[in-house]
Amino acid sequence: MPENLFKINAKEYILPGTRACQGCGLSLAYRYTLKALRENTIVTMPACCLCVLQGIYPSTPVMIPALNNSFASTAASASGLVAGLQALNRTDITVMAIAGDGGTFDMGIQALSGAAERGTDFIYVCYDNEGYMNTGTQRSSATPLGALTSTTPIATKQQHKKDFLKIMEAHDIAYLATASPAYPIDLYDKFVKAKKIKGTRYIHLYIPCPPGWAYPPKDTVKMGRLAVETGIVPLFEVENGRFRFTGRSKTMAERGNRLPVINYLEKQGRFRKMNIEQLHQVQHWVDGKWQEYQRRSQE
Amino acid sequence: MSNVQIMTGNTAAAIGAKLSGVQVVAAYPITPQSQLAEILSQYIEGGEMKAEYVRVEGEHSALTVCISASTVGARVFTATSANGLLYMHEQLHWAAGSRLPIVMCCVNRGVGAPWTIFNDQQDSISQRDTGWIQIYCRNNQEILDTIIQSYRIAEEVYAPIMVCYDGFVLSHTMMPVDIPDPEKVREFIPPYQAHTILSPEDPRTLNAVLFPWRRANSAGVLCDGYMEMRYKLQAALERSPAVIQETSRHFAEVFGRNHGGLSWGYRVEDAELVMTGMGSLASEATQAADMLRDEGIKAGVVGIRVFRPFPAKNLKEAFCGAKGIVVFEKGISYGYEGALCSDLKAAFYRTENQAPVHGYIAGLGGRDVKARELADAARASWTEMQTGIVEKPTTWLNCYTG
After folding, report:
1. I want to staple B327 with a disulfide (CB 3.0 to 4.6 A). Which of A61, A76, B246, B341 is the partner?
2. Predicted model pTM
3. Domain check: are B179 and B270 in the same one?
4. Which CATH architecture best describes the domain A2-298?
5. How close, in Å, is residue B91 to chain A by CA atoms?
6. A219: closest CA of chain B, how far (Å)
7. Looking at the partner chain, which of A59, A65, A86 has a beta carbon nearest the beta carbon of B52?
8. If DSSP states are collapsed to H, E and C, what string results for chain A?
9. Mean pLDDT within B224-232
């Protein structure tokens, strides 16, 4: 373990003073993301939690160049950066587009699908906190079944989360991975790897959100771990079509010690209205997905 | 020396972009712009033009690609029409707010619903308040020349420019066009110097969130708030008429053609009845002026080339001798009147020129407008004006309104 920690780039690209909420899972993930990508990087993002984290003009705690663009445009904005840099013979720069689940699953899907189909040479990161958290916890198509949001305030969300990873995999992209800030070394390794690959790379970050999920800010890493340990969030990567579990999920797949989803759900206020029927539905849905992944890992 | 070829407006536009040293093109096909998107892809794939072509999945992304590529320092070009332009609307504001010298052709077409592929100017008129400079062309030579001029203007004032020309009437009509010498064009447009380059050497966050008030940076220097930034966009557009006129003058010096800077006149020196409009409709009105002159009416035309910034000062002079003004427009501000008609009346507020202004809406969705019909309308208005009818409701020309 210590040698693993030492390999992480010691330089910090986010100084103290971000505008993120207390216990923000994104600030943790973004810190390791930038450490892995290093200086020669340009980031583009839509209106989202990250553009708040980046600070209020004219100051920013982030030392990597960043371009804010409109909500639906993140991947197209990255395409523009890539084309502009190509035209100016500056192909050594890594371009990263990063957006939340609202800007990815919902409004940004067209631009992302277009950029991925064109094989645009960039890294797209979706940081998935399972709702429109920046605007006050409204439902998105990434919100899980049974969650209370400010637009599903009484009956809870009635549909399962959209399986966005399948959609991205269907684009036959160069690299696809999931990661969690609760497992920073696994996250770091995936970005280091993605940086070296050409073409469209997609990394899905599962981001626990204290105000949106209604749990104490000190428990962000605990929530991230429970999400993985219950199999709700599988850590994996797909390279040239080959699926591979990584980190904690790999050990879980080998040992078969997956925890029941209730261990994760019961700790978050957003699931307090969930009924027993919904609990079974979620467990069943997670079991199905997990088995599918396990099958693929054995191929 | 001259290199005259017969070509469509879309070809003229493509040659204009090629000669301007555009480095990134992003476009999504839409009638009547499609041919332009196709010709540029031919130039680039064939190696005739050294640029990146991003074949985007929609117009919103087309302008986004231009915005981001311009931000890293590339010269960019796009083109669209009608609903494609409306789909870009959010990014039109974004481009102007980011103060990027993007040049885009709007091949004017009526907007849905109901669907029409044919020409009017409702598309670009309804994007009037996005902070873009709008220039309307009246022939294919002017399209090519205006694109070249636009890069020089946009890169000096840091505001995006929409070069508008009428769908089919110009986009698909063959006309002789003199292709300027590439070397001279290179000299005419110096390389693009971005005001802020997004680069790892000097990391910054662009278009960051801001609070309503001005705010100090880490060095204690008070920086612009949203209103100051928006004021600077307005100031840039207010400054641009001088740049547009100077560019036109300089262009005429180098290439021997002057399309008129902010506006142009036809037989206006002694004109009492002045017809006005934008693009091909204004060009059509010159024939109407000839017909009216033959009948003994002292008619002339002022063509509005630049609609935003609105050249009020320049137009006050251009219309100073007019005793009656007739405005022909291919668009309307629904619930009131043609946008040009309103702007023109406002320009004369508390000036000596209190000539009556009659507004006509013509040619929506490609309905044919003949010079004879423009002459008839202008004559009718002129007669009414003589009998003291100063104001009258907007007339829909060639339209069954019964």
Report:
1. B341
2. 0.97
3. no
4. 3-Layer(aba) Sandwich (3.40)
5. 8
6. 29
7. A86
8. CHHHHHCCCCCCCECCCCCCCCCCHHHHHHHHHHHHHCCCEEEEECCCHHHHHCCECCCCCECCCEEECCCCCHHHHHHHHHHHHHHCCCCCCEEEEEEECHHHHHCCHHHHHHHHHCCCCEEEEEEECCCECCCCCECCCCCCCCCCECCECCCCCCCCCCCHHHHHHCCCCCEEEEECCCCHHHHHHHHHHHHHCCCEEEEEEECCCHHHHCCCHHHHHHHHHHHHHCCCCCCEEEECCEEEECHHHHHHHHHCCCCCCHHHHCCCHHHCCCCHHHHHHHHHHHHHHHHHHHHHHHC
9. 97
